[in-house]
Model the fold of this input.
Amino acid sequence: MLETLLHTHQAPLDDSLQLMYFVIQHEIGGHLEELRWFHEDSTLQHEFILLSISIPGSSQLSWVRLERMGNIGSHRNDKYSRFARFQHAIAPSCYNLMNTGDVPIGQVKFESTVPSLIVLAQLVVIIYEEVPNYTLLWHNCWWFS
Done:
């Protein structure tokens, strides 16, 4: 599974953006099988994506929850408070990464052309480097999802 593979390579699991750079640099194998887009069942109106990842040599899929968030609770004078951060979680089942009330918005199953894990990581890095600032009204979790 993905988490075991990343542990084996001593990937930085505590920083999502650094993890994406690591996947690219170390050419971590894997393919994106499915993408699901959800609206979280909360008062914050948050949205996130779930990704189903297959790893070569494993019959089990891994699921990754990926979301763009602001630095809620940062001090207004903190020079890093405007930067977005990516948050991820990895689990063997998508149900471990969501609440029962979360509402599905969209779904894509990749069948004929399956993007690699490296391509996914490159896309996340491009998004972050292009728009590193998080703004509640524009470049937020909805924009990313």
Q: What stands out?
A: The chain is about 25% helix and 30% strand. The chain has a mean pLDDT of 81. Residues 117-130 form the longest helix (14 residues).
